[in-house]
Specification:
153 residues, mainly beta, 3-stranded antiparallel sheet, globular
């Protein structure tokens, strides 16, 4: 018996505001990833024991072979620029006051999309980029603990 079959008096429509709240949770792998970023200033990944793929950010299962991932590795703070773009509008399509430079920094077989602090004319695909972290006292356990990525000097 379905829920609607059990309650014949269920409303057909809800009028007004729906009082819904939610809270995003990182999950087991995500929690350890963000805790290491916050507490230790490290970017961690997980390695698949069957495929050998390194997942960054961390995941609980391999998307290729579905193996459980249990091996953590420190991938360092330096990744490789895979691609980048300049944003002129925000998520809602409104013009930004100042354009933002965003890139995909590759770590292992995954990577992180984040702000870049660089001259776009000097960027090259494949160049090494390092994470600039907030001071430890200001980290909160989010991806914004990384202020931006910048070219390695």
């Amino acid at each position: 018996m379905t829920l609607l079959e059990r309650d014949k008096h269920a409303p057909a429509a809800w009028r007004g505001n729906l009082p819904v709240t939610s809270r995003y949770t990182y999950g087991i792998a995500g929690e350890k990833f963000f805790r290491a970023l916050k507490d230790e200033g490290r970017i961690m990944g997980m390695v698949c024991p069957n495929c050998g793929l390194t997942y960054v950010p961390a995941a609980a299962f391999c998307e290729r072979c579905l193996s459980e991932l249990t091996e953590w590795v420190d991938v360092g703070l330096v990744g490789e620029l895979h691609t980048f773009t300049i944003l002129f509008v925000d998520y809602e399509g409104n013009p930004l006051d100042e354009p933002e430079l965003v890139g995909f920094i590759k770590f292992g077989d995954g990577g992180i999309v984040h702000k870049l602090d660089a001259d776009p004319d000097l960027l090259e695909i494949g160049m090494k980029m390092e994470a600039a972290l907030k001071p430890k006292s200001k980290r909160t356990g989010s991806i914004l603990d990384i202020e931006h990525f910048r070219p390695v000097k």
